Amino acid sequence: MELFDRIVRVIRANVNDLINQTEDPEKILEQTVQEMQEDLIQLRQAVAAAIATKKRTERDVNNAQSHAETWYSRAQLALEKGNEQLAREALVRRKSYWDTAQALQGQLTAQETIITKLKQDLRTLEGKIAEARMKKDLYIARARSAQAALKMNELLDRYNPSGTLRAFERMEEKILQLEARSEVIENMGSQELENKFATLAEENDIDTQLTQMKQRIAGVTETHLPGTGQSSAAKKVNFDAE
Fold it and tell me: Using CA atoms, how far apart are residues 194 and 198, in angstroms rounded to an integer?
């Protein structure tokens, strides 16, 4: 049955296939369930129409049987009155109604079979619709999740994390270089200051030595001490020699 084939295809539809389509999966599922609901309404109308037809057929059968019985009674009455010809005509009419009742009875049996099948299809369709509604919500949730994952992957492809990390690594390397330069400059400034103080200390030591040398030279040129024939500086030198 084409109706149920379409229902089975919908129930077994793969969400990934729906996502690859240009239509919105949610709209497709909603539309399919709506179509199934419309089919259910039409099937219910068909069942109601079949039941109504069956009732009319039953009424026609009863009427035909009633007329057949009436003409049978008339045939008996005519025969009792001795009118065999009239009784024959009544029996002919009775047979016509009886044949009609038998034909209608055959139609009634066929209609009952159709109604039974339609009711069975109706219950099956109602069950399929209930199942479709339940799975529809699940499929919609899965479709939304898949779409969100797809958008996230597209976003990650657009903003490649490895490229971003490389940019941060390059920035970190530049910062380290700047910090290293600053440290070198700071160390150079401190070393220069130390060198200046060391130079001052050396100059101070040299000045001290120079002063001592000047004092010694000035002592050598002094006059000799009385009665010795030597200067005090010469005497000091001799003393130092001892």
Answer: 6
Of 207 and 59, the structure prediction assigns the larger pLDDT to 59
Nearest of 190, 187, 208, 186 to residue 198 by alpha carbon: 190
Tell which residue, 44, 64, 164, has the closest CA to residue 104: 64
Q: What tens digit of pLDDT does each residue of 8-67 get? A: 555 555 545 544 554 566 777 778 888 888 888 998 899 999 999 999 999 999 999 999
Phi/psi for 224 (5° steps) reads -70, 150
Going from N- to C-terminal start, the domains of the chain cover: 2-159, 164-204
Topology of the domain comprising 2-159: Helix Hairpins (1.10.287)
Query: Alpha helices of the chain — where are they, by DSSP H?
Result: 2-11, 15-20, 25-80, 84-158, 161-220, 232-241
